Amino acid sequence: MDENIYKNLSRSGEYFMYIIWIQGQMSDLIILNRNKNIIKEFVKNKQKIPVILRDERCKYWKKDFKEVKNHFEIEFSNLLTDQAKADLNTIFCIRNAIAHSHVSLARPYLFYIPSNDEKEAYFKNNINSINKKEKDLFKPTIFKIDFSNDKIYFHNFKSIQRLNEIFIENICKHLEIPHEMIQ
Length: 183
Description:
mainly alpha, three-stranded antiparallel beta sheet, 7 helices
């Protein structure tokens, strides 16, 4: 297999898995914020997950990213900066694009066609490094996601890093929970 094809597939899968990991952290923070009475015991006894956290996690595992993202933004609206909201939108857009892309083992990029004009506009407005120039687009609009391109991949990966290392970390501090306990 061509190196760039492999790199794109690997990075797309890696990016997708990191988004699932971020979704899990957001779910835990929502649950813990809504059940502050269990935080001290949760932090004190790292080996035992409180029943309410376990039960609520199971419910959140059934939710899609958009629903968890919306709950998270409402729950922590006073702590989220414009950058955090932009990062959430970026990873939400890329997550959906990866999940609904045309994948081929013969090319080092994915093709994504938004299902309607609203999603197309949302994608164009929230993704900075994926082709957006009219000369690069077709009708229907086809976005090329080329994670074999280091510039595109690392630019978009910074959204996940910032969300985890700055914003989720700050929310953990606010709730007095060691970040590593929800990672």
